[in-house]
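Session log. Operator J.P. requested a structure for one protein chain; no other inputs attached. Running the standard single-chain path with token output.
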Amino acid sequence: MSVAFAMTALCLSNPSAQQAQNPSPMVEHTRAHVRLTAPPPEGQRVALQLGTLFVPNGLKKKARLVMHFHGDPLIPETAAAKLGGTVVISINLGVGSGTYGRPFADAALFARLVAEAEAKSHLTLSPIILSSWSAGYGATRAILRVPASYARVDGVVLLDSMHADYDGAPNTGPDNESVLAQNDVAIFLQFARDAVAGRKRMIITHSELFPGTYASTTETTDWLVAQLGLKSKAVLKWGPGGMQQLSELRAGGLRILGFAGNSAPDHVDQFEALPQILRMIK
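Structure written below.
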């Protein structure tokens, strides 16, 4: 995936679509930023009402379903093939988290997609994991806001993909911290609480990118951890795909991983790590 695409992708995370992101001017050449070069995995690809279903060869009767939002389908398809016993629906809708959220204002769309995927794959699809990168969180958030859909989702993976608007100007809250528009992140907090209690599984990753006009994934993650009454610990080690991991939190079924980097390639690294990240939630 090119750096040019990555810079475009950074601009897709704007939750309000009213202010442009301040794109990162940083270019980083120290870390490898490994990119997947393998050919697409073998299997069946079927167009759905929304997105494309990929069924690796050899599956019978039942499989895990990963519904992934945003990014080249090669990555989630490769992740499904490597994980085993897994099919994936890849959905790419374009610019802005609102573009991903709006279709799922239809509260029945999620259930229809799962039913269509089961009919066309001739498989029972369970458990169900929602995965998103960058702007794709808009779809995940909209799905989880529907109680019936929330109940069906067993796991959530947010790859540098949890943003929010600011409530007021940045850095005007207590201790000069920014105040988040809590409705933007409330459903993720609810899911995280269920994960800590062992009822769900959740993985959140974040880089050090700072959009400027809306809350970064670092800010939203810090807010969520504080609301849970937990604390991330500092670490310094290699993470998936050669990323440099700086922080970690594990509590029940919740895992949060913080990584170095404030450039476009660092943002793309998070998406490229999906095959390894999904193994953690398995």
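Operator note: The first strand starts at residue 43 and ends at 47.
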